[in-house]
Predict the 3D structure of the following.
Amino acid sequence: MRWQDLKNNPRLKENLIKRAETFKKIRYFFDTANFVEMDTPLAVRYGNPEPNLDLFKTEIQNEKGEKFKSFLITSPELSLKKILAGGFPKIYQMSKCFRNREPWNATHNPEFTLLEWYEVGITYLELMERVEGLLKDILGKEKMIYQKKEIHLSSPWLKISMREAWQKYALLDLNNYLNFDTMRSLAKEKGYTINEGETWSDWFFKIFLTEIEPQLAKENRPVFLYDYPKEMAALAKVKEDGLYAERFELYWSGMELANGYGELLNAEEQEERFKKEEAEIFKEKGEEREMDQDFINALSEGIAPCAGVALGVDRVVMLLTDSKDIAEVAPFLAREMY
Amino acid sequence: MASINEISKETILRLNGEIYLVTEFQHVNPGKGSAFVRTRLRGIKTGKTMELTFKSNESVEIVEVERRKMQYLYNNGEMYTFMDNSTYEQLEINVSLLEGKKEFLKEGLDVMVIKFESIPLSIQLPNKVAYKIIQAEPGVKGDTASGNVSKEATLETGHIIRVPLFIKEGEEIIVNTETGEYVERA
């Protein structure tokens, strides 16, 4: 039991205090920048249709015993965007999120703490600067050691587009491999396995995870990877070139720390993407999903151009305390409780 | 056929007609992506290492190999000699196949030798092994900067690992041979 660990392991105790301080610093950062903190529901009527995430499903009953499906959020994104539509320009939420069937390992737990924020009137590129500012503020050092590796925080962080990353590490122009056939032949030529039913994204990731992502982990500074192919747009806006989406991820020593978007605000396009994802979920898992029509209506009503990002707070505390395993910064993990 | 999810270190795969030994693997879930398994494979015939990523639901052909318990005897630098205690048959394994493992080989240690078509490919160490500490500074002050109160100590194999301050020269400790980390006093 971990409460005994707390008594015997001074480091765990220290880390939990640092965790609490981090929460305070985050709130101070946003409160002084005139953001309003939200605490939208953790149990909602409709789950986000994300084909690669599994939901915690439950059931809610009213006093008459009428039953409704209910889901724990994988992120507060849909609720927060409804608040944006309601006229709040700068909002944030720091709360638990739930992703079922995630690995129970050193960097994952099915219940984790996510910080998500939105700001009207800035671009996703400007948002990367804000993320950098927040983390420099929390970590408060020019350089730090994480797992024996020195990370420089003071110099500008590396910002590299997905196309540049492919050029730099795999010596390929990704623009030439944006369609099904060319990516398939590329993966095959490189010796990757090609199986029936696989998609463009599968081959993209086989190459990316082998040849590019490990190189990012070798950088001695945090890395923003931006402009993902539009197949991986999720809820991000597609750029004018029609090929890439306004999405970025922050990598830190090989860990994914944050995922941000120039937000897709076009209701019809959003509805279309949701339908496509719901079809994919049905095909993969046999699950029928209902769409959150209220969210589509909020988009139709109009939200001013904005950018938003989600940041894994447990992982930030891991960096801050030089912890290799989430167990060093969070005392109750699924892998111990079940 | 088996799922790539079932592989572990030392699994032998047949891919496009070639035989490979899995030397490293890692489950990766890229943000918003599906699950993948990143591997490092060593070609049995070529000896060449390559990296390859699979989708986590992919089927692969796992090849049955021979696993035999053998005892480590000695090495002459390049070649490490093992013996089957029931038949007294001896086998030499080249140091290049013992990366990350030779540091934990002590005389008399029982290991599993993995062979395919009678060619040795690799060995499997017991997960936890006791070693004598042959050299360690007295535990006065250690590296407390990172909050880890530990110091360096040399195992009887000559390998150096980090141990808690209270461990003294001459003591026996248990080491996890997979992570290379100190576990407890023996």
Observations:
- Chain A has eleven helices and 13 strands.
- The two ends of chain A are 12 Å apart (CA to CA).
- Chain A touches chain B through 33 residues (CB under 8 Å).
